[in-house]
Structures are given as C-alpha cells and as structure tokens.
Write a structure and sequence with these properties.
heterodimer, A: 268 residues, alpha/beta, 13 helices, 8 strands, globular, B: 100 residues, alpha+beta, two-stranded antiparallel ribbon
Chain lengths: 268, 100
C-alpha cells in the first residue's frame, strides 16, 4: 500500500518545497520508489530545487488533458535512481485543474510508487484543494513564528474537515540559540499550540541557500549538515523507525563550528 | 559565546518575546477556531456579567474575559474578581425559600 502525503503549510516561504525535495530524495535513498508532485500550477519550483528544470518536457497538465502519457511526463532523477518528479505547468494557473482530475492522477502514481509526496502551493484556495484531493496523509511544515503557526492551525482544521487521516508536523528553520535566549518559540511551544504529532525538527541552515543555487538537495551532500541529517531522520520515521529527537543544543552549531565558518569567510 | 550570554542577560529585561509569541498565538487561535464574531463575544460577556452581578459585586479593574486554547481545545476564560457578595434578596436561593 503506497502512501500519498501532501506537504502543506498555509503560509508561503516556510520551506515546503525545500523539505519536499529533500524528503523525497532521502526516502528514495532508503530504497523506496518515490514520486514528488509539484501541485503549484503557475508557480512551479520543485524542478529547480531538484536541479531537473532542463529536463522537463511535459507536465501534469498535459497528462490530465490526455496529450501525453503519465510516464512521459515523469522526470527521473539520475542522481537518485528511485526518485522521479511530476512537474506542474508553469503557463496556466491554479484553476486549470480540478480536484477530481488531481485525484485520478495521484491514484495512478500511487499504484506504481511507494511514496507520492505532493508539494502544495501556499494558501487555502483552489490550489490547496487540488493538492489535498488525492492525499491520505499530510505533513504540515511551519516555522516558529506567529504568522506561520496561525496559518498552520487553519490548515490543520481544513485537513480535518477534508478527512485526511493523519496529519504530522515539521518545525522548520529553528534557531536553537534564539530559543535558548527566549527570542524564538521552541518546538514544544509550537507543538503545544497546534496539538498535532511531531515528525521532525529542522534547524536553520545556510547550506540550504547554497544547495538551491546549485539544484542539489542537501541530503545528497557527502558531509550532511544538521538540517540534512534532520531530514534523513524524518525519512526514517516515516518508514516506521523510532528515531529520537536530538537535544536542542545539538541542533545548533558548536562554538568551534561557528569559529571555523567565521575564519573560512575571512579567508575566502 | 560571551555575546550570546550578554544578549540573554539583557533580553530578560526587555521581556521574553518567546513567551509573548506563544501567548498571542493562543489567544488568536482560540478566536480563529471558535469563529465567534467580536460582537457575539461582547454580547455574551455583557449577558454573563449581568447574571453574575445579580449575586456579587464585581471589581471591574481586574476583570478578564477571553477565549484561549489549551492542547487543541478552546476555552472561555473569565476571571471576575469579586468585591463583595450581595445580600441574597433575588435569585435562586430566594425562589427555593418560597418553595419551602
């Protein structure tokens, strides 16, 4: 039985697409067949973060319109053999597709993959309804900021109403130093407010920007950063493994790491 | 490290914004979830105050009346400090006397 998980947040800019690209890659590297679906019609980005933008020929829209077969639209990632991408159309907007058409498309993908990860657009309008149409689970991504958590709570309510059976939480871009200083909500604070189970904590990571510049997911790095390790742990948790959450302090850079980075910057 | 420590030391004085964020969220989420209009909330507040005031004299200074969330549930939090209890001339106990 394959798992269809919609990655959603309500608010934009919290890292949905980055987490989707990396979690898909991490699951594929655990040996699962994974397809990541860009459901952000009109504003697609998942292809860019995976570095697959030059290989997009057809999109989900042509598949839905019957202009090509599903297999023709799937872009296989050569670096990660079990991973493929179903790109969104860039030319049309979110109203070009209906939830029923999405559901059919996702059903087809589910029959041939272990995981279908759907990258949901920001907002709670038609794009959101399309993205959740075929899903049976959801992962909510938020940052420890009031606006992001408020929007996440709204989405939790909408997912409940749409009868999505399981909704789990990822707290992204956590800054342990700021939490310790009383300047940022902790993971416990966010979990207490949203009251849904936690599946991952990802610390803020400068490497994410570098990796998106290159189109290489951070989990592919030979020296995975703390954020990359956090995403690898999420993949293992989805696989049913019990993986402990590391202590807050160990999610931040140590003094020596910071000093090293400082020196590197000065030298370069 | 020393800088972090100093920031932490002085941030105590300027208040803990982490705690502020959490409290503001709890309040706003309670209102979002309840989907109760400010007008309806105000009318409920006045009605409840009316009933309570029949029995006790309230201190309007320290009065609190708001929605809050705790672990996924929404609650109405009313904190109504009592200045003094009114002599029982109306209300429930009076009607019970009549019955007896």
């Amino acid at each position: 039985m394959s798992r269809v998980i919609v990655m959603t947040s309500g608010k934009g800019g919290v890292g949905k697409t980055t987490v989707t690209a990396n979690l898909g890659t991490a699951l594929a590297r655990l040996g699962r067949s994974v397809v990541v679906v860009d459901a952000d019609f009109g504003l697609r980005n998942l292809d860019l973060l995976l570095g697959l933008e030059n290989r997009v020929v057809y999109t989900a829209l042509e598949v839905i319109a019957g202009e090509c077969r599903l297999e023709q639209a799937l872009v296989k990632d050569k670096r990660t053999p079990n991973l493929s991408l179903l790109p969104a159309a860039q030319t049309r907007n979110k109203t070009a597709v209906h939830p029923d058409q999405m559901r059919q498309l996702i059903e087809k993908l589910a029959s041939s993959h272990d995981y279908v990860l759907i990258d949901c657009p920001a907002g709670i309008e038609q794009g959101f309804r399309n993205a959740i149409a075929g899903a049976n689970e959801a992962i909510i991504i938020t940052t420890p900021e009031v606006a992001a958590v408020r929007d996440a709570d709204r989405v939790v309510g909408l997912l409940e109403a749409a009868q999505i059976s399981s909704t789990q939480l990822i707290v992204n871009r956590l800054r342990p130093d700021m939490v310790a200083a009383g300047q940022m909500m902790s993971v416990e604070d966010v979990v207490e407010v949203l009251a849904i189970p936690l599946v991952g904590i990802i610390p803020e990571d400068r490497e994410v920007i570098v990796s998106t510049n290159k189109g290489e997911p951070i989990v592919l790095s030979a020296n995975p950063t703390l954020a990359a390790q956090a995403i690898q742990r999420i993949a293992r948790r989805l696989e049913g493994e019990v993986v402990e959450f590391p202590k807050l302090a160990s999610l931040g850079e140590s003094f020596w790491e910071r000093a090293k980075r400082f020196l590197n910057q000065k030298v370069l | 490290m020393l800088l972090d420590f100093l920031v932490q030391l002085f941030s105590r004085h300027s208040g803990n914004s982490r705690e502020q964020a959490k409290q503001r969220l709890k309040l706003i989420l309670a209102h979002d979830r309840a989907n109760l209009s400010p007008a309806a909330l105000e009318s409920m507040r006045l009605e409840i105050l009316g009933v309570v005031s029949r029995y006790v004299e309230l201190d309007s200074e320290g009065m609190q009346f708001h929605l809050a969330t705790e672990g996924g549930a929404t609650a109405l939090i009313a904190n109504l400090p009592i200045r003094r209890v009114k002599p029982l001339e109306t209300g429930l106990s009076h009607s019970e006397d009549e019955k007896a």
